[in-house]
Amino acid sequence: MSEPTLPQVMLITGGSRGIGAATALKAAASGWDVCVNYTANTVAADDIVAQCRAAGASAMAVRADVAVESDVIELFEETEAELGPLTCLVNNAGILHPMSRVEDMSIERLREVMDVNVLGAFMCAREAVRRMSTLNGGAGGTIVNVSSAASYLGSPNEFVDYAATKGAMDTLTIGLAKEVANESIRVNAVRPGLIDTDIHASSGVPDRVDQLAHNVPMQRGGTADEVADLILYLASDASSYVTGSLINVSGGR
After folding, report:
1. What is the spatial distance between Cα 80 and Cα 101, in angstroms, rounded to a whole number?
2. Of the listed 38, 152, 162, 233, which one is catalytic?
3. In which band, very low, low, confident or very high, does the pLDDT at 2 lie, cut at 50, 70 and 90?
């Protein structure tokens, strides 16, 4: 008799909206059990969890600030306690401040963006490796980092700080992928371009996608679902020989 198949467990940071929420819903529909991490909007997170459960998945929401180490550790512990061993981390949490030139950026702004987008991503990746690595008794797994086309475009006069954090995410992806490739962990990144999500409202320009679509070779913004499809591919066995890759989802931009 064959051994029962363990559930596939996906933890999505920043999973209550945008790309994270789209990924959670697609993962649940594909047979994954899902933990939706969020920082503030309990109603939104609970709604995504309810939709995941309606699709037949086990799902939970955990409030945690990825910039706080104790929160990150508790997030991973709670996920495994309720859903079982982690098999995929989607490192998606990130923040964006209003448009600004570098010369006008406060140290408080810079520290907050770096703490969430860089240190948060590193700590989450660290906790995932501690659990997944075969060197630590784990069964392996995948990490998908959500970077941005900003990492190679630079976002001048807008969000050079945000772009710099995504450059760090790219380097984390390449280095960590090589570090754990022989420990049954694959690490890849998606680099979304102009995607129609509510993050643009955080920048003070809620209609930014419509304003800039003409700069995209495909002449349109992308959708959160289009990014989520690639994340699910990278999380699945269909991409079993793919690691250390930075894949653009940017309409050719």
Report:
1. 42
2. 162
3. very low
99 CB neighbour count, 10 Å cutoff: 14
What residue ranges do the domains of the chain occupy? Answer: 9-249
d(CA 172, CA 147): 10
| Residue 162 appears among annotated catalytic residues | yes
Output the pLDDT for position 210. Answer: 78
Q: 9-249 is classed in which CATH architecture?
A: 3-Layer(aba) Sandwich (3.40)
Torsion, CA 250, CA 201, CA 89, CA 113, rounded to 10: 100
pLDDT for position 196: 87
What confidence tier does 211 reach under pLDDT thresholds 50, 70, 90?
confident
Per the listing, tokens 């104790």 go with: 70
CA distance 128 to 182: 15
First to last CA, the chain: 51
Q: Looking at this protein, which amino acid is placed at residue 113?
A: V
Q: Which residues pair with 62 in a beta bridge?
A: 37
The yes-or-no verdict on residue 186 having pLDDT over 70 is: yes
Q: What is the pLDDT of residue 3?
A: 43
